Each structure stands twice: as structure tokens, then as C-alpha cells.
Amino acid sequence: MNFDTLGLLPDLAKAVNDRGYTEPTPIQIKSIPLVLDGQDVLAAAQTGTGKTAAFVLPILQRLAFVGLAKAGQVRTLVLTPTRELAAQVHASVEAYGQYLDLRSAVVFGGVKAEPQIAALARGVDTLVATPGRLLDLAQQGAVDFSALEVLVLDEADRMLDMGFIHDIRRIVDQLPENRQTLMFSATFSNEIRALAAQYLIDPVSVEVAAANSTTELVQQMAYPVDRDRKTDLLIHLLKYHQWSQVLIFCRTKHGANRLTKKLLAAGFKAAPIHGNKSQNARQRALDEFKTGKLQLLVATDIAARGLDINQLPEVVNFDLPCVPQDYVHRIGRTGRAGATGRSHSLLASEDLPLLQGIERLIQKAIPRVQVSGFEPSDTPPSPPGADTTARDSSESLSESRSTRDRSRRRRGGSETPRSGHETQVRLPKKASSAA
Q1: Would you identify the CATH topology of the domain 3-207?
Q2: How far is C-alpha 129 from the geometric centre of its chain's CA atoms?
Q3: Over the stretch 10-31, which tens digit does the pLDDT of each residue have?
């Protein structure tokens, strides 16, 4: 199937082709006809499945048949949980709508409100917004929802996790009841179903991947190591593999700042991205990461939500997330749109309960990879039934008792053979930066 069979306007099909897409993804095949038909949709899809185009394309097509929005009015509203995701969705709206006579705008906090107010005053066909800034503008009388036709709640599960439910309700209460509502979420949790029951009318449910699943295109590995040697191991892996582009996750803003300083001191080009950074600083770091000026981007979960980086080869979990679902979102930054990728988690013994929770969620054992010279003093056990030999690029990774014994006497990055022999733990082959 190609995009022509979905009945898209020639101008939309041309814009899709300009971006290099020739075949629609499963979520697009299932969702686009429903949205074009005006039905409410509740869709579950992983990050990187093409879900943004699944609602942007049909919405633009519907808007194209009617004149421009009147001054001050908004015809379509897309709510997102973070500034980064809002900017990314708006970029997609502009790219897909480049040949259409439509106006779009994006509003979020962390930047001056005046340009946003000016854009709204002209009238907006598609408005992408974060809840907090949108409420502020609505209270100032800067936005008119009376002509709204479509509401999209993008990454609704994340908005609930971040505590936006009250803001969402305050916004929806201002919208016309006679509208089309679309809800996109990574999962169909009980909370999401309850929200859908409140705001969607006879919705059609669309699901293209098992809830809480991780794509098979991402190879997942966990590296046992003592907590105080995580940074040393990370630097060792970066130098050994010569990774050119890596997204690194930390649990806290302060942790991201500390790790970034250590990576800079080690000679890497790195920058942190988290909620304490201004929007301009976050966007500058992201742009430099995308263009290759930055090798390493150190992020928190909230700041990284919505990052869209083509063919990102490597993701590192310096800290495992406290919420297992966040692991799925994290590694969803790689292995997107058919590309392959790798996820590397640094595993201290106290992280084991977190990893076990992740493995239960994704229903998959994550192979442990022991790096020689970084053996933990208290080795986390492997999951029941897991294949601890873990194969990567046809090269086996092995571990022996003698290696663990030696680690109790030595904490360096190299080893001396004992009793005339040594079992060497081999690292994976160097990954291509274009993976």
C-alpha cells in the first residue's frame, strides 16, 4: 500500500514524498481513513511508528477544504506534554502542510508570550500547545475556541503521568462539544480508557503493537557495574566503540549536570537537556546534537519526550527509570521508522529491582554483558532462564567465575592472566554511527 491509496490530496502526497516516505506505517493505514471520516479515535502506538503523521495528514486534508481560520480563532488543537514534543509536532504540521494555504502555530512556556499572542491574533488552523501556556493565554483572552473542529491529545499517557489531568479538563471545558477528538497513547491503561470515555464519543480503537512492548529493531543490553564506576564504564564504552551520537538518560536534573561535567572533562562534546534549562538552550543543544556538533546529549525523561532524531544509533540508560514504562519510551528514541539501534543500561546491584520490573513489563529478559575490568563487587544475578552469553553482531559475550574472582582483588580496566590462562570478556563489535 502507498499513500495514494489512502486518498490524500496531491499536495499532501507531494509533501510526504519530499520527506522520503513512500509507504504508510500500520498506524497510518488504520488511523488516516478514520480521521478523514470524522470519527473519534483512541490509538495506541509506540514512539517511532509514525503516529504524528497519522493524525496530522488527515487533519490537514480536512482543513484544506475550508477557508483560513478567522482572526483569533483556532480550528484544530493538539495538546502535548512537553515543549520538545510540541515543537516536533508543529514542525511536522509545517512540513506536511507546506503546499497548503493554512496557518499553524505552537505555544509553550519558557519563551516570550508576545509572539505567540500575535500568531493567535491572526487566526490559526492548527495550534500545537502545552497545557500550562495555553491556559495562560486563554485566561488573557488571547485564544478563541468557538470555531474548534478537532482536538488531539498526543501522548495522553504521559500527560496523565505528569499531572496535567486538571489542566486538560480546564481546557476541554472551554471547547465546543460538537468536535472530533483523537487520543494517542503508548498504552491503553485503565486511566487512558477512563479519559477516553469522558471525552471521546463512540471512538474506534486502533492498536498496532502490543502494549508495553519494545521494538525488535532495538538490541537491549545491561552492563553490571558498581555504582561508583558507572561513569568510568560509560567513558570506556564510548571510547571503545567510538560512538558518534549517543542519547544518555539520567534520573535527575542534577545527575544530568554532574555527568555532563565529567564527560566534558574526559574530552567529549556533551550537553545536558532538562527542565531547568531555558527553551532556547534546550533547542540549541538539540540542534547541535542533530547536526553532529555534539556527540552526547544527557537528558532527563521529561526533557527527552518527543525528541525526534533520525537514525539515532545508541541510547544509554546511565540511571534506570523508576517507572518501567519510561524505559519503553527511552529506548523508543532509537530503532525508529525501520532503523536499527541499541540500548545500553548500566546496572548497579541496587538497580536490579528496577530492571526486573522492566523485564516483567516488556515480557523479555535483557541480556547481561560483563565488561572485563568493570566487574561489580556484588554481581547482580541474571534473570531466570536468561541467556547470559548474549550474542551481538555474531560475537559472543562470555563471563567466567575466574573473571569475577579477579575483580574482587583488582578494580582497574585491564587484567593480568592468572595461573597461566585467562577468560576474556569480549565487548560487542563497534557499532556504526549510521545504524
Answers
A1: Rossmann fold (3.40.50)
A2: 18
A3: 999 999 988 888 889 889 999 9
